[in-house]
Design brief:
This protein has one domain: 3-Layer(aba) Sandwich (Rossmann fold). It has nine helices and seven strands. It has a seven-stranded parallel β-sheet with strand order 3-2-1-4-5-6-7, with helices on both faces. α6 links the parallel β5 and β6. α1 packs across α9 and α5 runs parallel beside α6. The chain is globular. The protein starts with 18 loop residues before the first strand and ends in a 7-residue tail after the last strand.
């Protein structure tokens, strides 16, 4: 692993001249992360599902980045289509001029059902998007970054990387595996000056948690257990993602950074 560069403290978090590929940035946590990375100086390549016939593409994040004066590109890919995922990294490289410095795997889907009734298709859908696409994109990123001896990979994990949850067996299995994958890749690639880390959100007020937010009993149970006294919001991830993408985290390897208002410490 190369020594950490001698960078003045005010510049440690600068991402000027960095190209970032990020999934799951059309809304929620991913959108907030994409904007934060752009504000730090990065050029952003957004991955989103290609709109169906008659649909209007969701370009809110793209337009918000452009409004900052930053560079933004969009590549279309259904992360549930594994062949399309295999073709994604080369497409992103082409869009970004042949160079990607940071990969952020933020996309994820959820399926909720009691485990005795959990459908095999739901299991497969969740594992493909939340785990296998992360592996395929990380492997492609490693193939690009290892010869260059530089790069950052940030995987979004979960509290369910550590805990089992309720009625979300596929999600818990996938996020547990993403945590271990993060450590495994870090073990191999840190020596090549590539930092692979994870961010583990706690309970965040996004559309993925709509059912919990609408359930007064579960909402009360969860809220009372968070020491910070509130659910998180997407903007709570701006600092962590810029930290892990920047020179400020040059000797941080295989870390699972929990952003949860204190839930795991209780």
């Amino acid at each position: 692993m190369d020594p950490s560069p001698h960078v003045p403290s005010p510049n440690l978090f600068s991402l000027a001249s960095h190209n970032v590929l990020i999934t799951g940035a059309t809304r929620g946590i991913g959108a907030a992360c994409a904007l934060a990375l752009a504000q730090a100086g990065a050029s952003i390549c957004l991955v989103q599902r290609e709109p169906q016939s008659g649909e209007t593409p969701n370009l809110d994040t793209f337009n918000a980045i452009r409004a900052l004066g930053a560079t933004a590109h969009v590549v279309y890919c259904d992360l549930g289509d594994l062949q399309a995922v295999r073709e994604l990294f080369p497409k992103a490289l082409d869009a970004m001029g042949g160079n990607i410095h940071v990969l952020v795997n933020c996309a994820g889907i959820q399926r909720r059902s009691p485990s005795v009734d959990f459908r095999e298709k739901d299991w497969d859908d969740v594992l493909d998007v939340n785990l296998k696409s992360v592996w395929l994109l990380s492997q492609a990123a490693g193939q690009h970054m290892v010869p260059l001896r530089r790069g950052k990979i940030i995987n979004f994990c979960s509290l369910l990387t550590f805990q089992g949850g309720l009625t979300v067996p596929a999600y818990a299995a996938a996020k547990g595996a993403v945590g271990q994958l993060t450590k495994a890749l870090s073990n191999e690639w840190s020596q090549h000056n590539i930092q692979v880390n994870g961010i583990c959100p706690g309970y965040i007020a996004t559309d993925m948690n709509e059912r919990l937010l609408a359930d007064p009993v579960r909402l009360k149970q969860i809220s009372e257990r968070i020491p910070a006294g509130r659910w998180g919001n997407p903007q709570d991830f701006a600092g962590p993602v810029v930290f892990l993408a920047s020179s400020a985290s040059q000797y941080v390897c295989g870390e699972l950074l929990v952003v949860d208002g204190g839930w795991m410490g209780r």
